[in-house]
Design goal:
alpha/beta; 9 helices; 7-stranded mixed sheet
Length: 338
């Protein structure tokens, strides 16, 4: 099978021929139909001390090809279309797994696309406990985006627990911010999007954002947002990993509002402990979450016809895709079809 692998010695993606893997305990062999590039891939390739090529990708969907006997009778059959989460090696049941499977107390969690083979390949292994059936109306060519970006965007909005008519600030109008805008509008919220890229802001506007602001020219946008929202947004979800995004976010939040941490910044956040202690705003985080929460996100996405804006690419273009992601020039989620 063909697989897109990051080669640390060549410092680029190479397309290699690999054997099709055999499913082991609790595993399903999936024929991948689409895999999409996530910003976290940059974290994967920039890890120190990498020596061997590894298969990228932790957003994927596909069709069940084969099941290990231990995965039979668990709700999945050959030929069915499924999506899946990428954290494996966990028990899926302990106290840690109920928070995030990376914190499993009984296993040794690993992430596909990082320390285990990922989904930019014609076939991949999936733990059946990470899997869910795809809605019939979802395309196998584009729905991979839902299984990291979509899950994260949904939870980041849903976990703000806002009421219809309240304001959500979307800081970072890339793929995640664009999906969050769709989810927020479907929940009846008002959205103001902030970015330094006019092109991505235009996409957010087209997907329903009530207002958009480019934060690069000046800090006047803070005053404009506070005026527009009559005091500030009720919650600001930061999808950017930029230090400036997190530094500016509290300025647009109304008193008693929420800072939703989503983008993984390279440096620790600098926040005022006095502001937190005095209740000026609260801090919460959201991520891809756990398999037990997938169904709510999938059902909501299907019901409200949430559709990610994607660009279809070929596997041979994966190195170009990574370079575009690193350079910050990508304006949509990039998807490889198989």
């Amino acid at each position: 099978m063909r697989a897109g692998q990051w080669d640390p010695k060549q410092n680029k993606v190479v397309i290699n021929e690999l054997p099709i893997p055999e499913p082991g305990p609790n595993e399903i062999l999936v024929k991948i139909t689409s895999a999409s590039l996530c910003h976290s891939e940059i974290m994967a390739i920039e890890r120190p001390n990498l020596e061997k090529p590894f298969t990228l990708g932790h957003e994927g969907v596909g069709v069940v090809e084969k099941l290990d006997p231990s995965a039979e009778g668990k709700g999945f059959a050959v030929g069915e279309a499924i999506g899946f989460l990428p954290i494996v090696g966990c028990c899926f049941e302990c106290e840690g797994c109920m928070v995030q499977t990376l914190y499993c107390l009984n296993g040794k969690p690993e992430v596909q696309g990082f320390t285990k083979p990922g989904y930019f390949a014609e076939y991949a292994l999936v733990d059946y406990r990470n899997a869910i059936h795809l809605p019939e109306e979802w395309s196998l060519k584009t729905s991979s985006v839902f299984f990291c970006a979509g899950m994260t965007a949904f939870h980041s909005v849903d976990d703000c627990q806002l009421k219809p008519g309240q304001w959500l600030g979307v800081i970072g109008a890339g793929g995640l911010g664009q999906l969050a805008t769709q989810y927020a509008k479907a929940m009846g919220l008002k959205v103001v999007a902030v970015d330094i890229n006019d092109t991505t802001l235009e996409v957010c506007k087209a997907q329903g954002a009530d207002a958009t602001f480019n934060s690069r020219p000046s800090k006047e946008y803070v005053t404009k947002i506070r005026d527009l929202t009559q005091g500030g947004v009720h919650a600001a979800a930061v999808f950017s990993d930029a230090r400036a995004a997190y530094a500016d976010a509290p300025q647009i939040i109304r008193v008693g509002g929420l800072l939703m941490v989503v983008g993984i910044a390279r440096d620790p956040l600098q926040i005022s402990t006095n502001d937190i202690a005095m209740g000026k705003y609260r801090v919460k985080g959201a991520n891809i979450s756990i398999p037990q929460r997938m169904k709510k996100a999938v059902d909501f996405s299907a019901k409200y016809d949430i559709r990610p804006k994607v660009e279809i690419r070929a596997l041979g273009e994966l190195d170009d895709m990574v370079r575009e992601m690193r350079a910050g020039t990508a304006t949509k989620r990039m998807v490889v079809n198989f």
